[in-house]
Amino acid sequence: MKKNLPNEFVFQLFALLIAFILVHALYVTWVRPQAESFLEQQAVQLRDHPDAVQQRSFFVVVKDYEQESCFILMLWALAILSYKGLVVYRQQRLLQHDLLQLPDNLPIGREDTHELAERLNTLPDADRESLLPRALLTAVERFAATGNVQDVSTAARDICESEGERLESELSIIRYIAWAIPSVGFIGTVRGIGDALGQAHRAVEGDITGVTASLGVAFNSTFIALVISIVLMFFIHQLQLMQERLVLDSERYVDRWMIRRLKT
Question: Is the distance from CB of 1 to CB of 84 less than 8 angstroms?
Answer without folding.
Answer: no
